[in-house]
Amino acid sequence: MFYNSTQDKTKAVLSAQAIAQGISQDGGLFVPESFPQITEEELKAMLSMSYQDRAKCIIAKYLTDFTEEEIADCVDSAYTVEKFGSENPAPLATVDFNGAELNLLELWHGPTCAFKDMALQILPHFLTKSLQKAGGGKDAVILVATSGDTGKAALEGFKDVDHTKIIVFYPVNGVSAMQKHQMNTQEGDNVYVCAIRGNFDDAQTAVKKIFTDTDTQAVLKEHNMMFSSANSINWGRLLPQIVYYVSAYCDMVNKGKVAFGDKINITVPTGNFGNILAGYYAYQMGLPVKKFICASNSNNVLTDFIRTGVYNKNRDFYTTVSPSMDILVSSNLERLLYCMSGNNDVETKGYMDLLKSEGMYTVSAPLQDKLQSMFWGGYADENATERTIHDLFLQQHYLCDTHTAVAVSVCDAYIRETGDNTPVVIASTASPYKFSKAVLGALDQGEMPESEFDMVEQLHEITGAEVPAPLASLRGKQTRFSDVTDKEDMQSVVLGALGINTNP
Length: 504
Description:
This protein has helices spanning 15-21, 40-46, 51-62, 68-78, 81-84, 117-120, 123-134, 149-158, 177-184, 200-211, 214-222, 235-254, 274-284, 301-308, 333-340, 345-358, 365-374, 382-396, 402-418, 436-443, 452-463, 469-472, 490-497; strands at residues 2-5, 8-14, 30-32, 92-97, 100-106, 139-145, 164-171, 191-197, 225-229, 264-269, 289-296, 310-312, 360-362, 375-379, 424-428, 484-486. It is α/β, with parallel strands linked by helices and 504 residues long. It has a domain at 90-110 and 236-436: Rossmann fold, CATH 3.40.50. Strands 4-5-15-10-11-14 form a six-stranded mixed sheet, sandwiched between helices. Strands 9-6-7-8-16 form a five-stranded parallel sheet, sandwiched between helices. A three-stranded antiparallel sheet has the order 2-1-3. Helix 3 crosses helix 12 (235-254), helix 4 (68-78) packs antiparallel against helix 7 and helix 18 (382-396) crosses helix 20. The termini are far apart.
């Protein structure tokens, strides 16, 4: 299988090159030239498989330049009981909310307590093998912009991995206190973390610019290095996310929540569009899905886009209690546009060029019709998010985080507005303890403690929900990284972190 650039489909590379490189040199994103299919027989066979074996089946369809043994090694090294707490790293929890049965796909049982672990525990294994195949012996420089969870998950996945260095940028006031503490205390000799004065979109735009800057690439080449990415712009990051939607469907059938072959709905709290896109790619492979419910917070650019066909980032930016969704430029939407336009790279590039120059674009009528046939967009503001956390705990004694609450709230609105009772899977993306202040505030339990870890303790006392060991162990851990930079200086920060002096 080959991979094309969304902005120039004459570019065709094997998966190892796509993963090692991260992003196409023309600024486009790598996408599979076509979608391999899961036959009815294959899906039936997966019902009795473990999560790990399901992963091997799906991944093998895309990484055709990897051997069966290489794929098995990647999967078995990533999804261990030690890292995820059980044989199934992505279990389903069923709750009744406002009279509707919701199946929460808990994607946060990994080492950093966020859904990003599902991809970022396996990506380093993909990347090291890809570098051997296509990297020419170079060391990989993993450059990451994060709105909170990707940063820590990438740092944890790549720490002390041979022939890699990882540099993470995050908005200084745009992540939770726990997310910041997780990143700034990160261990590992090959890691570096820096805050920026700005928001996630500023960090993401600067990182993409550095990636495609030919002068910087030349400097790295002189030092036997090359850029790669752990963001969901990297195909090796997106691919593992396809697996958990297929696995969730199998678990739904096994639990009697849906009859084999019948359709489900999928609801995803969405920022950069990677997580929901992975579900759409599973649908393209043959997974029976009726509707994708795209849930936004107050930064509801995607809701407006799905409803109107107009993508407009020229709007107020809000810092919310669901910071991983505080995004106005959803990078992976480019991949959806490419797919829905019939792999039209010229049309896709036109939209991206307009986004850069005007901050907005309007898709064609046929593309808008396709979009609305599969996607429904809604958003939850701060009040709705907090009310959902409160009500879900009151009704079911189930504690969810702020991002999952956005998805539950929007899914509830979808069901009430449309009357669609199709069985639904909701991506639950983080432990509530990563956002203790907001969750505690939503439960309205009186005076708020000052310390983040005292908040965690109080939340545990009130709810009885188990505190994940990786978060509990952070208490008292010393800060390693405290640098803050302007977005204009990120390029020099990168070279400095790599020990490269460009001054004559």
